[in-house]
């Protein structure tokens, strides 16, 4: 690669959004020597460019006054979609009124340039803004990497410790992983349903990680008792019970330079000591009752029982999840906090999915989420560019799959009302465009008022935990009406959000 | 005719535009593009149709372009029209303001035309 080519390669990209061609041309003329330029003549066009390649854009120069979607509207949309965290915006306008300038900054613009502008000013401000953002990004990545590294080693230490215990138990290590996954799901559900527990993302991460140590006290139990295939004698059972207190003592005696009530050791201690307590006070070792039992231990106790039931043990076969649920709810395996049982019922489907995932892969969905929530809790970090690149690759993958498939897929973005169809869907439906802007009027025209109402009813019933809905509809297409089965999955920005952000779907023709 | 003379004829500020855009070729290039910009036509049509938001946008765009190219007279008259149209339907008949813009616009296009023909 020659030096010139190299330079060319590393040129950053600036998106110019202005409805006036002359204005775009003038800015392009000024910036083209230093940047790759993309132009958009309308707000919607800019949304299209940003949606498909926002991670590749270093800066947006945005005109304020434009027909249809003006600069302020585009800016708020960028803000809502989180694009502003990695793409800075400089607004340009002939309007130097304080109202306009304030509004631009309020909505998240980095800078405001008034006409008539000076060539040097434009170049310098563009350059400075890009450099600042780039520096911030580098620092962000460094911090992210460091926290990730710390998390990874923490996680591994806990994993090693708990595997030692499992190994002596003659179990595979899966139990620890499962308890961890179940604890995480239960806590997330509990957090949403019962704000009175005041659970934060950091606490959930802490409890989930500490849950792996719940049986660490078993290290002190004689192997003959630990692995006895037949029923334990009362004496043996008494010895077995000491694993709670022993585990707790091991953690008490671990030096704890940080101290504090929320520390990892504190949480792990509570879990070890009290994960065999019962909500009715008939558990061991202390006979704690109800909310006397720390919520961390309550959750891990339930996770422990659930996994014990659904796993194969020397003394019993694995029960199917439905049977395990029935036994727990029927009170056959101890008594639990009724709120937790509600949570368990609610997340039954999700548990099944998570446990399947956690059977073979060490980098589970749960773990990734945990690390992410930890990251967010630590410093409100925005997505690192590594994450963005991964997302970009995922997007590429999806595009490839949909383009190769003879299935009718589509995607609907709630914010912008854009519908993107797979090539095959567009062809089958007799459409030339794969992207259409679908406002309510057009939706009604294609679907009919009744069906639209029905779709909206179905979508309103979808939740983060139960995101799929299905219906059958007749679509009024240019070639005449056709009947379809419509499978929809709602995609959510997070389980705390009241509504979904996007819908992906598949159409299956029912009329051949 | 050279660019400096052209700016004198159309009531522009040659020094200012050179100070901002630096290169005479660049100024000349965009000056020549100016007659192709459709803002003035859009302005005329929108005012005829009493479509005030479109008229405001067209006047605003014309003002912005004129300011960037140092077309001072046109920038001034279109700025006054822009303000009259900002709040929607103007309180007073905007025709006199529009006529001023039209005069400046035609003078500007004529001067650029003369530049074009040498």
Care to describe what's here?
The complex is a heterodimer of chains A (512) and B (118). Chain A is 53% helix and 13% strand. With 512 residues, chain A is of the alpha/beta class. Chain A has three domains: 10-139, Rossmann fold (3-Layer(aba) Sandwich), CATH 3.40.50; 170-362, Hypothetical protein af1432 (Orthogonal Bundle); 405-509, Beta-Lactamase (2-Layer Sandwich). In chain A, the strands form two sheets. Chain A has a six-stranded antiparallel beta sheet with strand order 8-7-6-11-10-9. Chain A has a five-stranded parallel beta sheet with strand order 2-1-3-4-5, sandwiched between helices. Residues 1-8, 360-366 and 376-383 of chain A have low confidence and may be disordered. In chain B, helix 1 (3-9) runs antiparallel to helix 7 (95-116), helix 5 (52-68) packs antiparallel against helix 6 and helix 6 runs antiparallel to helix 7. Chain B has one domain (3-116): Up-down Bundle (Four Helix Bundle (Hemerythrin (Met), subunit A)). The mean pLDDT of chain B is 93. Chain B has seven helices and no strands. Classes of the chains: A alpha/beta (512), B mainly alpha (118). At the A-B interface, helix 2 of A face helix 2, helix 3 and helix 5 of B.
